[in-house]
Every structure is written in structure tokens, then in C-alpha cells.
Amino acid sequence: MATKTSARPKSTPAYRCSECGWTTAKWVGRCGECQAWGSVAEIGQVSAKTTAAATISRPAQAIADVDASAASYRPTGVGELDRVLGGGLVPGAVILLAGEPGVGKSTLLLDVAARTARGNRRVLYITGEESAAQVKMRAERIDAVAETLYLTAETDLGIALGQIELLDPDLLIVDSVQTLSSAEADGSAGGVTQVREVAASLINAAKKRHMTTLLVGHVTKDGSIAGPRLLEHLVDVVCQFDGERHSRLRLLRAIKNRYGPTDEVGCFDLTETGIEGLADPSGLFVTRTKDPVSGTCVTVTLEGRRPLVAEVQSLLAKTANSQPRRATSGLDSARTAMILAVLQSRAGLDLSTLDSYVATVGGVRLSEPAVDLAAALAIAGAKLDRPLPSQFIAFGEVGLAGEVRPVPDIARRITEAERLGFRYAVVPASPNGPGAVPPGFRVWQVSTLTEALEVAFRAEG
Fold first, then answer.
1. 433 vs 237, more confident
2. How far is CA 350 from CA 9, 133, 347, 353, 388, in A?
């Protein structure tokens, strides 16, 4: 007589990536999410389950009947932050702010917290890296003390959620998400499982209460956001806050933004008394000298949609070594080496026995190809020992054939240069021309690097 056996759910082995938390039913050598090699390991047996349909308490709503006023922007009072976010903070939005240690993340968010609290709104600041007294000392130093700004030093997620339940804040700041841990999840604070649980709980609380949430995130050695990549998918906005350690300039960029643009850049000046927005930071990147100096050239670069005037400097020195030194600061070393090769092969400038040092002013980093022409003219000026004319700018991409290629927004760059007092420009030749040129501003359009050198160093006037 055959015995009847009860059906059991099918069980399959599961594997998880230790870098981003991606799971798969079978082992693979490379993660399908973050593309990391050797990071997928077995996490045990997982039973395949199905979810039954639940009773609907709130039916779906026609999109035309949805009230969009609940998601309107609320300005923070920090103009540069509002520019990057698209207008301000959105109720219920979860924003992740990442950056290197000491770049000013906590200072910026403490300033935002104080400005929000002074607008008759409750703000809860949860710190897991400092004590409440340490945060109070910084708040006094930057004048960020407000009556409705509440502080708590906590690393337990359950207690943090209890504080949110008790206070019901309009704005929540967590510094940082990697320091909180949940007793319901395995692993230590900052691990993949813990960060996923903490982020999911905070996002759920933010959406349920229409509470804007700002999360501080750590970064790895290569500058990427630490923790699972799922964290960036869950939040609404991801901002990167960076800057040179030896410079006061800080740049804020939106990598992801569900409520606004991702091509805006905010500029800040970090001082001992706090952090201030820079509506016009171009003066930080240009050297003001009475007489022109050889080996320098001013350019206009675009950071997102924002034109910034910056200066490229070059110095050439004789060397006794068989292989000259090529040093750069603030510029891409590979592109600078390419420009040196183009100047030697296409323009006839012998640089084979000279050490070259090319740098930007003010610690700004220029990665746009439009900076190529200014770097080339600065190097050529150092070689010829001839300064460029005063009130002169140049921008354009230089190709290996010696051609000068068009770059976007030529008219906007010229307008920004004219606003800052420049009167002459060498720009790439474009089928549509340079656009509307301001009165009294002269523009030369060039197609090759040789033409640009001719205009900059040999043309009279």
C-alpha cells in the first residue's frame, strides 16, 4: 500500500553579493548588479514562496485626481543646495549625501537643520558618530542653534524609530546611515544586510509621515558610496559632496534626482565659521595680475549647466633626464599628455627635452574636453615665453589630428566671460557660428590648433 506524502515547498540554494547585496539562485563568478568578481557567496537554503492577494483598503486613484501640492518644494535657505535639488526639499523625499571624511557634510546638514527649525518646523538630528555635546559645540561655532532642533546620539535603529514616533519631525537627519544597526538583522553596522534594513525602515517612516529625510553616507577608497548599491536605488536623491582637502572650495552634485535636474552644481566655501554658498565662484579660479604672464590661459568650463571661468597655468623647464617629467594638478594627466604630443607633432613645438607642469588655479578640477585648447595655449605660451593678451579666453576640444572640435553652449560661455570683463575669445568653428556675441566682444573661430596659435601669439591687436 502506497503511502501519501505531503507536498513541501521547493528549496533552492541562494547566493548573495557581499558588495551590493544582489541575490541569485545559482553561483556566478561575477555579480550581475555591481560587476564585482568573486563577491557572490552562498547564504543558505531559501524556500520558494508565493504571496496571496490581500484585501485592498485604499483602491487605486486616477492620476488626474492625485493632489500634487503635497510634493511641492520647500526652500532650505541655502541657495546652492536648492539649486542642486531643483528648488528645495520635498516632503517625504529621502536624500542621500555622500562624501569623503572632513569634506563638510555634517556642517552643511547642520546648517540646513537650523534654518529649517527657524522656520517653525521640528527637526530631529540623529548622530551615530558624535555625542550630542560635540554636535552642540559645532552648532554654536557655525551659529546653528535653534529651539525646535532636537539632537540625539543613537546607533540602535529601534530607538531611533521610537524618537521619530515621539517627536514627529518635519525633517530628519541621520549622520550616518552606516552607523545605525537593527537587532532584527544579521551582521555588524555598515554591512550589506544592516544598511539594507536601516534604509528600508527609514524610507518607510519618511513616506508614511511625509517627512523629509537626509542621510549621510560614507564613501570607499575609490570614491563610490559605501554599502549595497541597493541603497542608491531606494532613495529619491543621491548627492555627491567633494572638494580638495587643501582647498576651501566644495562642490555639490546630484547623481540621481527624482524631483529635479542632475546637471546642476552647487559651490560652497568651507570656513572656520561654517559653510557658505558661492553664487559666483569664478573669481576663485583666476589669478588677477597687473601684467600678463606667459604660460597662462583662461577658459570657460561647464559644471553641469553652470559656466565657470578658470585658469590653466603651465611651466616648462629643461631636464637632463632621457624621459621628461609630465606633472599635472587639477587636469586629467592622459589628456594633458595627449595635448603635449599634438603640440609637438602638429604644431612643431619641440617639448621632448622639457619637463612640463600643468595645473589649475584654486584647486578646481577640470575634466571637460573644452579645456584642451586653453591647456594647449598655456603650454605654447610657456614654450614661446610670450604671454597671451589680457582679457583673453579660449575653449575647445583638441583632437589628435590637430583639429579644434566644437563644444556645447558656446554662446553661454561667451556671455559668462563678457560678464566677468573679458573681451577676446578663441572658440571652435561651428556651422551655426558662436551665436549672439555681446557688443564690444571679439571672437575668432578656428578649426585647427595651428590657427589658434596664430591668432593668440602672432596676430596684431
1. 237
2. 76, 62, 9, 8, 20
Q: How far apart are CA 376 and CA 145, in angstroms?
A: 50
| Residue 86: closest CA among 256, 213, 277 | 256
* Residues 89, 92: Cα–Cα separation, whole Å: 9
165-185 residue pLDDT tens:
999 999 999 998 999 999 888
Dihedral angle sign, alpha carbons of residues 394, 395, 400, 402: negative
CB atoms within 10 A of CB 142: 18
Which has more pLDDT, 197 or 281?
A: 197
* DSSP codes joined into one string, 105-153: HHHHHHHHHHHHHTTT--EEEEESSS-HHHHHHHHHHTT---TTEEEEE
Here the cell at position 349 is 613645438
Per-residue buried b or exposed e for 97-115, using 16+ beta carbons within 10 Å of the residue's own CB: bbbbeebbbbbbbbbbbbb
Q: List phi, psi (to 5°) of 78.
A: -105, 100
Q: Which residues are annotated as a binding site?
A: 99-106
Computed on alpha carbons and rounded to an integer, the radius of gyration of the chain in Å comes to 28
Ordered alpha helix ranges (H), 118-248: 132-141, 157-167, 192-209, 230-234
pTM across the whole model: 0.76
Continuous segment of H or E residues that includes residue 270: strand 265-271
Per DSSP bridges, beta strands 40-47 and 23-24 are unpaired
d(CA 121, CA 149): 9
With residue 338 as reference, give the H or E element that holds it: helix 333-346
Q: Does domain 70-279 have CATH number 3.20.20.80?
A: no
Q: Domain extents for the chain?
A: 12-44, 70-279, 284-457
- CA dist 226 → 28, 84, 431 (Å): 23, 22, 46
CA atoms of 342 and 334, how far apart (whole Å): 12
284-457 topology per CATH: Ribosomal Protein S5; domain 2 (3.30.230)
Task: Identify the band that residue 10 occupies on the pLDDT scale cut at 50, 70 and 90.
Answer: low
Question: Is 174 in contact with 216 (CB distance < 8 Å)?
Answer: yes
Please give the annotated binding residues for ATP, written as ranges: 99-106
DSSP letter for 178, please: T
CB 180 within 8 A of CB 128: yes
